[in-house]
Amino acid sequence: AQKVTQAQTEISVVEKEDVTLDCVYETRDTTYYLFWYKQPPSGELVFLIRRNSFDEQNEISGRYSWNFQKSTSSFNFTITASQVVDSAVYFCALSELAGAGNMLTFGGGTRLMVKP
Amino acid sequence: GAGVSQTPSNKVTEKGKYVELRCDPISGHTALYWYRQSLGQGPEFLIYFQGTGAADDSGLPNDRFFAVRPEGSVSTLKIQRTERGDSAVYLCASSQGGSSYNEQFFGPGTRLTVL
User: pLDDT per residue over B45-69, tens digit each?
Assistant: First the structure.
């Protein structure tokens, strides 16, 4: 069975600090996809990134970067120079290729609070 | 273009009542998903539709929960004999296809409170 663990339930930083959100996953599939979603106070989940299991290249998008390491089953997310607008709950999710559809299995989320 | 919409945004009901939650997916999206998010937790999968048929309903907690998508577009999640434990935010998502790489677009959710 697939499982996603986000060990950090809450992180508080001061604006301009860098912060890394951890994500560890479990799956028996060799082909799968990993996602990060942001859930601001408004409640709507916002897609941030998708990574397939065969692509271990790190990715950078502006202040966001992702580190995928298959050897440790981790897909960590780093925000550089955090801003107050980054305050939200962030979810890591996994989707296996096998099965009837690509249901997402979410972690418990990490609440990030960025203080001015 | 319009995103996924859900109605109502909030629903308060009494224990034992029947409720219907509606989801309007993005036009043209063939795949539709329902998730449930309890307070302080991540969303949990309930059911997946590909077109009109429920391709995977393994996440429905019991037979009080049922969902339909009769014309392959709008979907309704139906909960019979509601219980206080059903209180949660019910999220709907749609995607262009049912493959794992298809990004799922989420609606704002319906907050259900069972008194």
Answer: 999 999 898 888 999 999 999 999 9
Contact A58, A74 (CB under 8 A): no
Dist CA A79 CA A60 (whole Å):
10
Question: A17-68: per-residue pLDDT in tens?
Answer: 999 999 999 998 888 999 999 999 888 899 999 998 988 888 888 999 999 9
Distances from the Cα of A66 to the Cαs of A62, A84, A111, B99, in angstroms? 11, 20, 18, 23
Cross-chain Cβ contact B48/A100 below 8 Å: yes
Q: What amino acid is encoded at A50 in this protein?
A: R
- Which structure tokens are listed for A43? 């409640």
First-to-last CA distance in chain B?
Answer: 37
Structure-block tokens of residue A23: 């994500």
Locus of tokens 């949990």: B44
- Would you call B100 and A4 a contact, using CB atoms and an 8 Å cutoff? no
Contacts of A105 in chain B (CB under 8 A): 45
Q: Among A6, A26, A2, A27, which residue's Cα sits nearest to residue A76?
A: A6
Q: Which among B99, B107, B108 has the least Cβ separation from residue A102?
A: B99
* Euclidean distance between CA atoms A98 and B77, whole angstroms: 25
Q: Could you tell me what percentage of chain A is helix, strand and coil, using 3-state DSSP and rounding each to the nearest 5?
A: 5, 55, 40
